[in-house]
Specification:
With 189 residues, the chain is of the alpha+beta class. The chain has a single domain, classed as 2-Layer Sandwich (Alpha-Beta Plaits). It is 21% helix and 21% strand. The chain is built from seven helices and seven strands; from the N terminus they run βαββαββααααβαβ. The strands form three sheets. Strands 6-1-7 form a three-stranded mixed beta sheet. A two-stranded antiparallel sheet has the order 2-3. Strands 4-5 form a two-stranded antiparallel sheet. It is globular.
């Protein structure tokens, strides 16, 4: 199996949210709190020594996905062929019956439910239908700063290195998220 994953260059991201908007539009996610790609602003310091970085946060397609382990309906599975974590929304019990066990198990809040009662879980699947046609995920294609990439993890590591952490993101050896970073470290770190 070739594990697919993300690359994020934190030094290039300007927090424009183009990736998040493109994702929401492409997948017809209604306006509201659900965002398969989230952008987190990390601010620190006091004038004149300020620090600002952004963290793009999709589903990190973990080797040991805690959401799949927590799902009582086995609606979340990891594909053998490429390591992508997918949701069978027909099997999902919804936020009313399940009480969001998958969401609560994920350190990165990737699984999400809409605000309506009985909403089914949804999350990033690396735009599975796009890359099976040879296209990158919509967030990668949309990023005007070229801060995102995706592909097999061994190729991403060869191309970008093997840094597994960044400002605002902490690697979990237990879950093994499939992500490589170019971090924007705070001065003095």
């Amino acid at each position: 199996m070739s594990q697919m994953g993300f690359y994020f260059d934190q030094t290039r991201c300007t927090g424009c949210y183009t990736c998040a908007v493109a994702c929401k539009d492409w997948h017809d996610v209604p306006a509201g709190p659900v965002n398969w790609m989230r952008i987190k602003a990390i601010e620190d310091g006091k004038f004149p020594n300020l620090f600002l970085a952004y963290l793009a946060s999709p589903c990190y397609q973990c080797a040991n996905p805690p959401c799949a382990l927590a799902c009582p309906a086995k609606a979340i599975t990891k594909r053998e062929s490429d390591g992508i974590v997918v949701v069978d929304r027909e099997k999902c019990l919804g936020n009313k019956e399940c009480r969001t066990l998958c969401l609560n198990s994920c350190p990165w809040d990737a699984p999400q439910f809409g605000p309506e009662s009985g909403a089914k879980m949804q999350k990033c699947d690396l735009c599975l239908e796009r890359w099976q046609k040879g296209q990158p995920p919509i967030c990668v294609e949309a990023c005007p700063m070229y801060a995102l990439d995706f592909g097999p993890m061994d190729e991403l590591r060869k191309k970008y290195g093997d840094i597994a952490g960044a400002e605002g993101f902490h690697y979990s050896a237990r879950f093994k998220p499939a992500a490589v970073f170019k971090p924007k470290w705070r001065p003095g770190k």
